[in-house]
Amino acid sequence: MATMGALQPYGQLIRSARTGITYVPRRTLTYTPIRRADESNNGPEKKSESEAKPSALSSIKNFFLGGKKKPDTTKGTITRRPMAPMKREGDLGSDSIFAQDEAGPKITASGRTPSARKQEGADGEEQAEVDYSIEKRSKMNMSAVLDPKPKRRVTWERRMVIRQLRKGGRLSKKEQIMQTERESLVKSHWFKTSIKKLGPLARQIAGKNIDDAIVQMQFSKKKAAKDVLEHLKHAKNVAVVRSGMGLGAVGENAPKDKPVTVILKDGEKKVITDRTAIYIDQAWVNRGPYGIDYDYRARGVVNRLRPPYTSLSVVLKEEKTRIREWEDREAKALRQRKSQLWVQLPDRKITTQNQYYSW
User: Fold this and answer.
1) C-alpha to C-alpha distances, 233 to 28, 73, 204, nearest whole angstrom
2) Which position has the higher pLDDT, 142 or 26?
3) CA 146 – CA 151 distance, rounded (Å)
4) Do 77 and 43 contact (CB within 8 A), yes or no?
5) 80, 123, 197, 287: which has the highest count of C-beta atoms within 10 A?
6) SS3 state at 32
7) d(Cα 206, Cα 213) in Å, to the nearest integer?
């Protein structure tokens, strides 16, 4: 069985039996390093033919091809691949605050300041600086954005004029409130908490002054109170900058408002000294998306969790709005009391009595 399974090199035996013919083994696959030819003669010195040792492959080539060939001096010498240059670290700029020992000039508010770049013409002469102010801009280019549909704009203006003529210039109560009172609605980003945990904090700050609500969140032990605190600070800044709320009287000699005592909806009495103070009129919670989290347990068990995300929205108003709402409630209650009041008939003499009709 061993003889049947063995492979006999019959080809080699046949070639070796022939006289005058030597056996040339097949060339195996070998790795050849990449070399590049350098046309310049800057490489290492050439070795003489006597110093070069002949290899086994070269002797076989010489046997079949008939001797050595003269070396081709026209080809370049083989050199190694040049190495990449060493990296060089950069230096600090002249205007850096850490470059204290640098000799370059520093840009300061009182000293050297950057100047506008001057444009050069085709002939190399410097041109005057271009003025990009609003007055110098082209109205034709800006009309594509400011007035994209002029026909619709004219139609809307005509409709508004007709509406004012029909009303006689009178404004509705809602329009009058929007023109005389300020309001700011700010919605927060998504908090990683639930509605059940964020709802009590929203009810706690609703109806309070914005500064009092910030103090409440600073001393709260709830985990979500930190996010609510940052949102209240952001909402206050937005109301002051965008809507101009909470600025109060301008100047030291400006007249101050007299303190007003109002009764809130829950029956609480409140003394208002500044009509421009900001308070939280409404605060509610919005349900957001659900995230993905994992709970790793024993024996390779992994439970998939879905933590909820919620946000907080607040409506900020000024104290003069609260005063106006209190006056409206008082006027409505007075009208209801007057409508239910019984008035005795006047005591007058009965005259012109007759048993027959006068007509």
Assistant:
1) 78, 83, 16
2) 142
3) 13
4) yes
5) 197
6) coil
7) 8
Between 163 and 55, residue with greater pLDDT? 163
Q: Write the DSSP symbol of residue 95.
A: T
pTM: 0.54
DSSP 272: E
User: Cβ(295)–Cβ(303) under 8 Å?
Assistant: yes
State the helix-helix crossing angle for 210-218 and 195-205, rounded to 10 degrees.
130
* 275 token code pair: 């009509």
Positive or negative: CA dihedral 50, 53, 59, 62: negative
Q: Could you tell me if 319 and 275 are in contact, meaning their C-beta atoms sit under 8 angstroms apart? A: yes
Separation of alpha carbons 46 and 327, rounded Å: 109
Task: Extract the tokens encoding 114.
Answer: 């950057």
- State the helix-helix crossing angle for 195-205 and 225-243, rounded to 10 degrees: 50
pLDDT at 21 over 80: no
CB neighbours of 110 closer than 8 A, spacing ≥ 6? none
Crossing angle between the packed helical segments 225-243 and 210-218, to the nearest 10 degrees:
160
Q: What is the pLDDT of residue 256?
A: 78
Q: Using an 8 Å Cβ cutoff, are 304 and 294 in contact?
A: yes
| Cβ 324 vs Cβ 262: under 8 Å | no
Q: Decide: residue 69, CB within 10 A, 0-12 exposed, 13-18 middle, 19+ buried.
A: exposed
Task: Using alpha carbons, select from 213, 191, 193, 190 the residue that is nearest to residue 202.
Answer: 213
| Beta pairing partners, 199 | none
Q: Do the Cβ atoms of 210 and 216 come closer than 8 Å? A: no
Amino acid identity at 85: P
Identify the residue whose tokens are 């070396």: 71
| For range 278-305, the mean pLDDT | 96
Around 5, how many Cα atoms within 13 Å sit in the side-chain half-sphere? Answer: 2
Shortest CA distance to 281 belongs to which of 249, 330, 239, 311?
239
Please tell me which residue, 118 or 262, carries the higher pLDDT value: 262
Rounded (10°) CA dihedral 323, 326, 327, 329: 160
